[in-house]
Amino acid sequence: MRKFVRLLPSGPIELYNLADDPGETNNIAGENKEIVSKIDELMAESHIENADFPLLGKTPFRLGLENGWLFLIPFGLVVSAIAFFRRKKDREEQISKPDRITLLRGISTAILAGISFFSPMMVMAPWFYRSVAAAVTGILVYGVLKVLNRNGFPGAFLFWIALGAVIPSWPFIAALLFWFIAGLTTLRFDS
What we know:
Keywords: Membrane, Transmembrane, Transmembrane helix. This protein is an alpha+beta fold.
């Protein structure tokens, strides 16, 4: 049984006969040049076939399926860090913005402080809001709130602007229950 040792592609070659020399003290590479050249040739072919440090001096770039995902780890860390700091910066900008309500038709903008209530009703049609407010309050609404921004975040329709008066949204909630329970259709008003 023989052991072939070559530490570097261009380094010295060692060959030991492990049956006679288990301690690997006697290098027999000089005596068996034919065996050494054959083993060296086979090793060079295997390096080229496996694209693993070929003897020609060029190392091809290999991205196999077994280790390709390793390149995604630093990419994911960088993207996560950028997204974290971007969200932090956006949040600081949004907190610094005042609370405001904007009328649908651009009639005016009112600045309100300390409004933190949110409602899921902002997806409803604006004419539905006008008809509900008119049915509940008896006042034709000139403008309907488009968006309530709480520190820059889109919020909900919480107040009505009707003839210059701000009406709380509890009539709207009561009217919604009435319309859904009674099954009545909404009335359309021209603005």
